[in-house]
Amino acid sequence: MPRTAQSAMIHILEGNPNNKTKKELYRRQKNESKLAVSNKSILAPPWLSTGAKNEFNRIKVLFEATDILTEADINILAIYCDTLMDYKSFKAQVKKHGIMMGGKINPAIREKQKSAELLNKLANQLGLTPTARASMAINLGSQGESNDDEEF
To answer: The pTM is what?
Structure first.
């Protein structure tokens, strides 16, 4: 299965594991700058619950200095926060009713597991896991250093 396309900056931060040429990385970076999205007005959507809005704002503050999140990411971050609230709800249901209900496994356990899988997927897309951040930060220290052999 082919990997999802990554931005030129991600390629550079990861040390260019796909061995893109400097010309191709420059072209991608130039095209991506044309598609840049503002991060000036990242607001939690009104349809989020209070708990989800609080989580949305907490994550927004954590990422303000990074310029990673943009206005285009609002909905995916909102879905992450909403799913987190669902996960907490399913967890509370399991705690209240137990693992078994009427001789069968509590259906909230299955829903909790589905929510956990979706949370993990969304967290990786948003850079909310240590692994996701590590993959972006592998060569971050050398990004600003000048090198006569490289343009990036």
So the answer is: 0.71
Residue 149 has pLDDT above 80, yes or no: no
Tell me the CA distances in angstroms from 138 to 2, 126, 130, 134, one per residue in order.
Answer: 22, 17, 12, 6
* Cβ neighbour number for residue 108 with a 10 Å cutoff: 20
3-class DSSP assignment, residue 99: coil
What is the Cα 50 distance to its own chain's centre? 21
Distances (CA, A) of 93 to 8, 39, 103, 120, 150: 44, 37, 16, 21, 56
Report the alpha-carbon distance of residue 140 to residue 30 in Å, rounded.
Answer: 20
Q: What are the pLDDT digits (tens) for 67-115?
A: 778 888 899 999 999 999 999 999 999 999 999 988 999 999 999 999 9
- Is 150 within 8 Å of 21 (Cβ atoms)? no
